[in-house]
Amino acid sequence: MSFGRPPSISSGFQVNPPDRGSFPLDHYGECKDYMQVYLDCLRKNGSNSTPCRHLNRDYLDCRMKNGLMDRDDWRNLGLSNLQGDPATAVTKDKDKPSQK
């Protein structure tokens, strides 16, 4: 007695794009250094990500700058409330006129 056949690719199988959180691999290692520093921080802190959030932001910023993920607001990524944020400090320094 047959209970049906397994689904095949030719009949009704549809490919969907990945959900949020899936993004292209960094084939050229453009953000590898940021990733290593972040993973080292996680190892040192027993996988507690709280002390490493600023490093996570640096890594994601690198990925956005290099087109490895779509640019998104930090608030949407849960990284908008970091104190002593180096990314904000760099932006502020760029806005200041250079003193000679």
UniProtKB/TrEMBL annotation:
Q: Where in the cell is it found?
A: Cytoplasm
CHCH domain: from which residue to which, for each copy?
31-65
Q: Which SUPFAM superfamilies match?
A: Cysteine alpha-hairpin motif
Cited PROSITE patterns: CHCH
Sequence ranges of Basic and acidic residues compositional bias:
91-100
Which keywords belong to this entry?
Cytoplasm, Disulfide bond
Which residue stretches belong to region Disordered? 78-100
Its biological purpose is as follows:
Required for the assembly of mitochondrial cytochrome c oxidase.
The entry sums up its family as follows: Belongs to the COX19 family.
PANTHER family assigned to the protein according to its UniProt record, in alphabetical order: CYTOCHROME C OXIDASE ASSEMBLY PROTEIN COX19
Entry protein name: Cytochrome c oxidase assembly protein COX19
The opening ranks of the lineage are: Eukaryota, Fungi, Dikarya, Basidiomycota, Agaricomycotina
